[in-house]
Amino acid sequence: MEYRLHSYRSACGRLDLSAREYPAREAGAPVLLLMHGLTRNAADFEPLAAHLAGRYRLLVPDQRGRGLSEWDSDPSQYRPDVYAQDMLALLDSLGIARVCLIGTSMGGLMAMVMNALRPDLASGFVFNDIGPVLDPAGLARIQGYVGPGATMPTWQAAAARCRAINAAAFPDFGDAEWLAFARRTCRENADGTVSFAYDPAIAKSIDGDAPQTVPADLWPLWDLLDAAPVLVVRGALSDLLSVETVREMAARHSGAFAAVEVPRVGHAPLLDELPALGAISAFLREHIPSSRT
Predict the structure, then answer these.
(1) How far is it, in rounded angstroms, from Cα 75 to Cα 211?
(2) Partners of 260 in the beta sheet?
(3) Residue 171 within any structural domain of the chain
(4) What is the DSSP letter of 29?
(5) Burial class (CB in 10 A: 0-12, 13-18, 19+), 244
(6) Which whole number is the average pLDDT over 205-228?
C-alpha cells in the first residue's frame, strides 16, 4: 500500500505532527480518519488499511508523542481533548469538513471529544474496544506497562516483549504475528537497537486513580452522539470494554447502532479479523458508501 506523509502543525502551534494519507482511486471518495490507541501509532492500522485503501481516502495520524510526530515537552498535554484539537487541525490543514471517525481505544475517546467540539463533522463512528466506561482491570493493566523501558537489542527481542505485554489479548498469535506486531509498534534506533515508538512521558497522563487520559464521566459525551450511525467492535476477551457497557451504549442510542464481538481477541482487535472486517465493511456500505463498495 502506498501512502504519502502529510506534515502539519499541532493545534497549539508548537509541534510538527505527521499523518499517513492513503489516496482513494476516485476523486471525492469519502474520508476515513483512523485514530490509534495510547501506545500505538499510525502503523497500527496497516492491517485494516490493506482492506480499505483505494475505496476510501484514509487519514492515519501519529498523535503527538508517537511515531513520526514530535514529542511534547509538556507531558500534561498528552490527553484526549488536546489530541482531538490536533485532529481538527489536521482536517483543517487539508480542507476536509466531513469524515467517518474510526478510533481504537484512546482514539475512540478522541472521537467522542471531537463530536462534542464539532457536532457536524462526523458521518459515522466506529469504536474499537472502547466505550464510556473503562473497566478498572484493563486500565490497571495498561498503567502497569506504559512508561520508560529498556531498549531491546533485536527485533526478535522486541517481538518477545510485545508478546509478554499482549499475550492475553492475542492467544492465537505465533512468532510471525508477534514480529509483525513489533514492527508496527516499535522503531529501530540509529545503533540498531529497538524501542517502543512513543514518548515514555505519556505514562504520566495515565497515572493514578483519575488519569488525564480518561475523562471522569464519558456518558454525557456518548449521549451527544444521539442519532449518528455507530458501530462498536469488542474483543471477546477484552478487559477494558465490558458486555454490559456495550448494552448500555445501545440502550442510550437513538440512531443506527451495531455491535460485533471478535472471538479469542482481547484489547484491542486489529480490525482485520473476519468478524470485525465484515462488520466494518457492512457499516461503511450502508452509511459511508463509496462508488466501489
Answers:
(1) 13
(2) 233
(3) no
(4) P
(5) exposed
(6) 85
Give the total number of structural domains in the chain.
1
Residue 17 has pLDDT above 60, yes or no: yes
What CATH number should be reported for the domain holding residue 255? 3.40.50.1820
SS3 label, residue 262: strand
**Residue 177 forms part of a structural domain:** no
All three cell numbers of 275, joined, read: 468478524
CA–CA gap between residue 55 and residue 50 (Å, rounded): 11
Q: Compute the 3-state secondary structure of the chain and give helix, strand, coil in percent, each to the nearest 5.
A: 40, 20, 40
**Residue 46, pLDDT above cutoff 70:** yes
Alpha-carbon distance of 116 to 85, in angstroms, equals 11
What's the alpha-carbon Rg for the chain, to the nearest Å?
A: 18
In a domain, 266, yes or no: yes
Of 139-143, 146-150, 207-211, the range with the lowest mean pLDDT is 207-211
Q: Are 111 and 103 in contact (CB under 8 A)?
A: yes
Show the domain range for 76.
Answer: 4-146+205-287
The answer to whether residue 75 sits within a structural domain is: yes
Give the DSSP letter of residue 44: G
Mean local confidence (pLDDT), 129-135? 96
Neighbours of 43 (CB within 10 A): 23
Tell me, what's the pLDDT at 15?
Answer: 98
